[in-house]
Amino acid sequence: MLESEKTLRWYNVALIAFVSVWGLANVFNNFANQGLTVITSWILIMIFYFVPYSLIVGQLGSTFKDASGGVSSWVKETSTKRLAYYAAWTYWVVHIPYLAQKPQGILIAFSWLFKGNGNFVNETSAMTVSIMGLVIFVFFLWIASKGIATLSRIGSIAGTAMFVMSLLFILLAVSAPFMTHAKIQTPDMGAIKSYLPNFNFAYFTTISMLVFAVGGAEKISPYVNKTKNSAKEFPKGMLALAAMVAICAILGSFAMGFLFNGKDIPSDLITNGPYEGFLRLGSFYHVGNLFMILYAIANAMAQISALAFSIDAPLKILLGDADDNFIPKKLSKLNKKGTPVNGYAMTGILVSVLIIIPAIGIGNMNELYKWLLNLNAVVMPMRYLWVFFAYMLLNKQYKKFKSGYKFVKNPVVGYIIGAWCLLFTAFACILGVVPKLNYSDSPSNYMFQLALNIITPIVLVALGLILPAIARRNKKDAA
């Protein structure tokens, strides 16, 4: 790339990355798990995980600047085609729980928009919601297969709106006690002990949600080589990103302490919290339901856009450069509109199963939504493991590859940092399978969720082991 085409500055990189990585839901989800002590957790996760993770992505993106397959290309260049296939499979298959939850998010947004309260979440049975969610998912599976361009514009508008609403929430909530004399809901917010976590087993089962919140930095790798003086400005942009995320996370958690009692957290905070929060802010600032309605509209659009694009984009990454030694040709078959119809069918079957089966053992929508979110926090970070794996191998083969930007110059130190990030991610995923409810409250529900949390990742990964066997058999039959 010509130097004149490298137009991005560090602040451009930071803003692009911030919009793609951060969201308001991260504040609510982690406050629901840890209360005010999450502020200390945010500081620790930023320093010891997010900053190195972002800079590792910067080096991988710079080293393999012409690679089109992202993480799978990095793994292919540093190891083997087989491992690259598994990386691509992991990237795709972790979106299955994500797709299963999006219809629920749409239903919640519309229920608040049209009913003005969160009763839908607490009163509707899990099976009813699952059937409605399945209908929504099948509809958008059909929409995505048509490749409607309008969804792109909706996604851009929704992304911007959600970004603005996130910043607005923090600004209004932090200002509320001083501008409107609103009562601070969490007691002892001035005491240091209120922010110190108890590093016990229960605490460590919640860190997967923190990892889930700050993950996804590999999306910004294409911008490394579009950055002016990338060796200096890209890491500066990543540090600015970390600072922005840290500020939003910490201030957002403070704001949560003003609006909700961190020592007596509502059971539906994850599902209804953002809407309830904006409703309270509307009351404080005497604008009624305005903030809640704006958020509900923005979130509904964002959920719809994310659902449609997450059906299509990860599948195209998996099948776009498919090796017929690992992926059967029938799976990559395209129709006249360029849609991988059999790939869509596989997506539809897996998501449908994950939408319906959990509702059999989980009684209400609130618990179902929280369970699926927790499952996402266990499964989604599995794709980050391949980023750190590729970085470890890159440092092991440091003489073979040239990079315009290096996170650390010493390959041994680089390897150790990559190994730390990989082990920490794996540790978070493994402990994240523990259900976030008391065993004594409902032993059967607890064991059902635990079984699903263990079985689901194993099944999703195991399916990736089956496809190469089918591909080999197809090639043998063809011969």
From TrEMBL:
Pfam families: AA_permease_2 (PF13520)
Transmembrane segment boundaries: 12-32, 38-62, 120-144, 156-179, 199-217, 238-260, 284-309, 341-362, 368-391, 412-434, 446-471
Organism annotation: Dellaglioa carnosa
Protein's cellular compartments: Cell membrane
Main location: membrane
Record-linked Gene3D superfamilies: Amino acid/polyamine transporter I
UniProt cross-references to InterPro entries, sorted A to Z: AA/rel_permease1, APC_superfamily
Keyword Cell membrane: yes
tRNA-binding as UniProt keyword: no
Protein's UniProt name: Amino acid permease
PANTHER family: AMINO ACID TRANSPORTER-RELATED (PTHR42770), GLUTAMATE_GAMMA-AMINOBUTYRATE ANTIPORTER-RELATED (PTHR42770:SF15)
Membrane topology, from the record: Multi-pass membrane protein
Keyword entries, A-Z: Cell membrane, Membrane, Transmembrane, Transmembrane helix, Transport
